[in-house]
């Protein structure tokens, strides 16, 4: 695989057990695919993988800011898949998803599956102080009450969010796409680094697939929301290629401070890997300072051309989402893709 930095979106599905003839086997008579406005390019890629077109839909905003959605074809008795990450602007995109679900339910769809590549409010998954909302659970309730019958989500921030839904949820991972890319680079003397204790399971899983690479952990103390203090590295990184892995990069404060510490501890190269490129300011400035050889993310969240930088590598998860949609539609196993 050739890596094109700064603007490329690379497609990868070789780690997955993808059925090459999937598109030929799909019964399109009852399968419908629609896209919200949050990430249309990703939805178009998924549609191409499935060998079908996105369904027609009217979307507009009234003068007072209210959203209007109308499905422009009959979906009575159909299995409908709505692709909409709840990324910035989170509230608008979430509300659009709810309206799309409600419109499909009222149009007598047989089943409505909300395909949510990025689940907003995922970090509010528990109470850490008094009088707080568990917003991740609230969002789950809203989606369920709107009329969704099933959820397809990618790399949820915490595993317990799956239990917040009272409907079936298929949870898939972006790690096979990232793994394929890292293997293609033939990096030597790798150490996989978790940016905090909470991400150890994720880092360990990646390290195991990279020929049982050693693991290191950054001891981090968070002082406030979006503010972290990095203290020390647990593990040997001197002279090694450090691969920092996380589920998302938001302001990049944690991962940048971690990279700086790894450099100080003697790491020869530092790569950052994450599924979700949230990239809230000042993430771009922090990530493009030269701390990283590459910042590897996927396209679950769209990144504007103006926000791309030389070290950025985007990998496409469209094939993975498309394959999962096909397997759900055909009542096939989803978990077997990751064995």
From TrEMBL:
Domain spans labelled Ribose-phosphate pyrophosphokinase N-terminal: 32-147
GO molecular function: ATP binding; kinase activity; magnesium ion binding; ribose phosphate diphosphokinase activity
Entry EC number(s): 2.7.6.1
UniProt: ATP binding residues: 64-66
Keywords of the record: ATP-binding, Cytoplasm, Kinase, Magnesium, Metal-binding, Nucleotide biosynthesis, Nucleotide-binding, Transferase
Cellular localization per UniProt: Cytoplasm
Gene Ontology CC annotations of this record: cytoplasm; ribose phosphate diphosphokinase complex
Annotated catalysed reactions: D-ribose 5-phosphate + ATP = 5-phospho-alpha-D-ribose 1-diphosphate + AMP + H(+)
Entry's family note: Belongs to the ribose-phosphate pyrophosphokinase family. Class I subfamily.
Protein name per its UniProtKB record: Ribose-phosphate pyrophosphokinase
Organism (species): Iningainema tapete BLCC-T55
Primary gene name: prs
């Amino acid at each position: 695989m050739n890596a094109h930095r700064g603007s490329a979106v690379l497609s990868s599905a070789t780690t997955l057990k993808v059925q090459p003839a999937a598109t030929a086997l799909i019964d399109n008579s009852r399968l419908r695919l629609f896209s919200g406005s949050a990430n249309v390019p990703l939805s178009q890629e998924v549609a191409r993988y499935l060998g079908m077109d996105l369904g027609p839909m009217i979307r507009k905003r009234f003068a007072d800011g209210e959203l209007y959605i109308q499905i422009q074809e009959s979906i009575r008795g159909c299995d409908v898949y709505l692709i909409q990450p709840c990324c910035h602007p989170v509230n608008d995109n979430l509300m659009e998803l709810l309206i799309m679900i409600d419109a499909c339910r009222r149009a007598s769809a047989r089943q409505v599956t909300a395909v949510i590549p990025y689940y907003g409010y995922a970090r509010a998954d528990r109470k850490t102080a008094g009088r707080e909302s568990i917003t991740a659970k609230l969002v789950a309730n809203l989606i369920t009450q709107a009329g969704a019958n099933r959820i397809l989500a990618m790399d949820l921030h915490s595993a317990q969010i799956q239990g917040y839904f009272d409907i079936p949820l298929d949870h898939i991972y972006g790690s096979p796409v990232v793994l394929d890319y890292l293997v293609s680079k033939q990096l030597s003397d790798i150490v996989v680094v978790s940016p905090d204790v909470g991400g150890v399971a994720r880092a360990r899983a990646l390290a195991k697939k990279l020929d049982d690479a050693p693991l290191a952990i950054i001891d981090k103390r968070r002082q406030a929301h979006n503010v972290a203090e990095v203290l020390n590295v647990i593990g040997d990184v001197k002279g090694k290629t450090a691969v920092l892995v996380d589920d998302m990069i938001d302001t990049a404060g944690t991962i940048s401070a971690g990279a700086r510490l790894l450099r100080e501890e003697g790491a020869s190269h530092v790569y950052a890997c994450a599924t979700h490129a949230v990239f809230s300011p000042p993430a771009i400035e922090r990530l493009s300072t030269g701390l990283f050889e590459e910042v590897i993310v996927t396209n679950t969240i769209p990144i504007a051309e103006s926000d791309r930088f030389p070290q950025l590598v985007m990998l496409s998860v469209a094939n993975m989402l498309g394959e999962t949609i096909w397997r759900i539609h055909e009542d096939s196993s989803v978990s077997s893709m990751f064995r």
